[in-house]
Every structure is written in C-alpha cells, then in structure tokens.
Amino acid sequence: MGQFLKRVSSVVPNLHVLDIDVPLDTLCKEEHKLEQVALGREFHISLGRTVPIRVHQIDSIVTMLCQKLQFQKRYWIDFNKWEVFINDDRTRTFLSLEVVTGGLPEITKQIQAVNEVYKLHNLPEFYKDPRPHISLAWALGHVSGSFKKVVEQETKSSGFRGSLQSRICTSKVGGIECKIGNRTHIICKSPNQ
User: Fold this and answer.
1) Angle at 99 between CA 96 and CA 105, to 5 degrees
2) pLDDT tens track for 5-18
3) Which sign does the torsion angle of CA 146, 152, 155, 156 carry?
4) pLDDT tens, position by position, 80-136
5) Distance CA 73, CA 136 (A)
6) Is 192 within the bounds of a domain?
7) Can 121 be counted among the known catalytic residues?
8) Which domain holds residue 127?
9) Which of 16, 44, 121, 142 is catalytic?
10) Helix axes 104-120, 58-69, angle to 10 degrees
11) CATH number of the structural domain spanning residue 43
12) Signal sequence span per UniProt (predicted)?
C-alpha cells in the first residue's frame, strides 16, 4: 500500500492523509513516517451517514444500536479494490480501499441494522447501494476524473488486476462505535476468537 500511495502522490498534487491532514507527499519522503502515520493507525468503515441528531434522540439511538448490533462476531474483511469517492457536497475527493468480497455480507447486515434505527428516528438512511470502504487520503474539490485515471494507471502498472480473489490487505473487525459530537459510544466490541 505504501508504494501505491507514493506513486499516486507523485502524480496527484495536494493529497492529504485522512484525519491528520498532513500532506501525503511530505510523508512519502520518509518510508517509516509513511508507514507509521498514514498506514499505522485505526481505520473505520461507515455504517451510516453523518446526520444531525437532536439531544433527546441520543440515548434512544445508542440503545437501539447496541440492541441490534451487540452480538456481532469477529470477522475478516478483504480490501480488494482501490477506488475514488467524492463527498456529498463535492468538496473533497478520497482515495479509498473498497470491500468487494470478504466481509461484505457482514457489513451489509450492519448497515441494514443502522438504517432501521435511523428510520425509527426519521433520519436519512445510508446510500441505496452502499460501497463499504476505508479512506486513506483526500484532495480538495471534485477531482475524481483525473484521480481515477491515475488510480487505474497505477493499478495496472503495479500488476494488481483487481480481481475479486485478489486482496490488497485484510483486517479483522475490532468492534462498532458511534460517534456523536465529541463523544464516542461503544456499541459492541468484537470478542477475541
């Protein structure tokens, strides 16, 4: 992944590492910093949209999420495909790793459970055809066209064909959290198996 990020950052200017907003090209100059800062952290897969919640809804939403998701078993996720996504406002473009096979059925069930809770609270559901992924880097604006070309070229030149059996990396799910404002609610922790 590190080599792929280096190649993409050399072609796409102004890429930043997600969550820490450090320019990716700065980290790419030192291998250990790239590994530690960009790749050596916890990532998340969104199971629902970011939505405004009223204060009186918080306890109900957290309780219902805990009830619906408390018995989640630990499972593996295969990240099979480099993909480019754009936020709803079209103000940022993201370089992401998408889940295409391993773990997709489990994540899909979790998204459905979150959607049920959202519906009961008159909140907008997740995307109609969700595409679970982790985002690694972002660029300002709607630059998906040029970004996608670079990702396609780099994917081909790196020898990764993106077949459904291939995987770029694999990870075990550690649990589900719900972040509301500055507070993080533990919905479930996956038991070690």
Assistant:
1) 150
2) 888 888 887 888 88
3) negative
4) 999 999 988 899 999 999 999 999 999 999 999 999 999 999 999 998 899 999 999
5) 26
6) no
7) no
8) 1-187
9) 44
10) 150
11) 3.90.1140.10
12) none
